[in-house]
Amino acid sequence: MTDLKLPADPRQRRTGAEGDGAGDGARTRRGISWRTPLLVAGLFFLVYLTLSARRHAVNLSTGYDLGIFTQIVQSYARFSPPYSALKGPDYNALGDHFHPILALLAPAYKVFPSSYTLLVCQAALTAFSVVPLMRWAEEVRGRRFALWAGLSYGASWGLAELVSFDFHEVAFAVPLLALSLCAAGRGRWGAAVAWAVPLVLVKEDLGLTVAAIGLYVAWKGPRVTGLLLAVLGAGATALEMLVILPEFNPVGQFAYWPPETPDEPGLLAQAAGAFWPPVKWLTVFMIAAPTGFLALRSPLLLIALPTLAWRFTSPNPFHWGTDFHYSAVIMPIAFAAAVHAVAKGGIDARRLLPACAVGALTTCVTFFTHPLHELVTPQLWRETSQVRAADHLLERIPDGATVAASNQLAAQLADRATVSEVCLFPRSFPPREPAEWLIYDNADRSDPDCATGTALERTGGVAGYRLVEHREGISLLRRADR
């Protein structure tokens, strides 16, 4: 693999004038092609969209979260605050998480008013993040290294989890982080700062990631610029969590503070808890392994610390592992760090090849343990009798109706009806008046203590409603006074 070697022509070597990432082992390549990165990005766009769209088509998407985000973007498209009936009546979603960047999806939703619009946009945003990483990797070590970086990153488990579990606002963070960190690694400090600033509009915790980028810029580049960015990021997180989110939250506080306990552990015990249980160490291993552990050689990886810190100190076990979308923002950091490690020099082809092989092997293994493998499973492509029954019953609900639905059916209605959560998750607020329609799937175990499900299983009905039709364990009911 001669493409992994440095060029013999000294004119193609950098002199280090552009900053930390531009010295020693890196090189410039005039006219780096856009064609291959765009082709790889296009491939992953199709993969991501196929996975998420097919999951939605066979009713594997959920009200939490595709339904919620559909309602938010639908509100923006109507030029109203981002309300979500699934969270509660007239619930302003800016009291849940700070994500005004979602308003950018409103024009697309106005033209194509469907939950699929969100899935298309997420697939495009995530796939595009491949492009800056591949172009930088090609500058550093040529086309083969760029292909390894692009394919390993695009197929990484963190991105697979994002596109599999419906839609999330962090889809915007993935390309912004890739663009910012690739610029920082090259020593292009202005671009690094410019791409980092919009992250404060994606989610409240990402201001801390912006602060970390600012500290890196202050360390390796213009100090004042970096410190200003760090202050902006930290200040944005403080403003959002302490002022904006409580202002819009129905109970007047940030919704995700850890619950108070009577026996509060000491600071030392809390710090020790950040390193236990072992699943947290597995997550760290899984972040580094797809890069062949090259990321551990770059200080760019330190930018992932704020995200890991809040996750590992969280009392919610879902934040500790590799499931859901929480690691998606770490993937561009890890792979940018891997490219940066090679760009700094000191890694010849004999050491680089084994690292790339380890990364490729990890990607192949995680294909079978994370959601991309669903693309080759019959479940994603077969329309079962249960899916047909659900579609039939959903069609009986007219557009514009008020519906209380179980979690895995709510997303199917969010773009054409006012949908609330039939089981009333602990984090949602009940509607002011009963919905006109109620649809419940006995196979949906999202809330095992669902009062509606219990009533249907015990008595075959729900007080105040009459049964319209029952198929394949799915019950459709309508208010008796209608």
From TrEMBL:
Alphabetically ordered keywords of this record: Membrane, Transmembrane, Transmembrane helix
Native source organism of the sequence: Streptomyces gulbargensis
Protein name: DUF2079 domain-containing protein
Cytoplasm as UniProt keyword: no
InterPro entries named among the record's database cross-references: STSV1_Orf64 (IPR018650)
Key word Transmembrane helix present: yes
Pfam family, one: DUF2079
Positions of the UniProt region annotated as Disordered: 1-28
Transmembrane segments: 32-51, 116-133, 145-163, 195-219, 226-246, 324-343
Compositional bias segments (type: Basic and acidic residues): 1-17
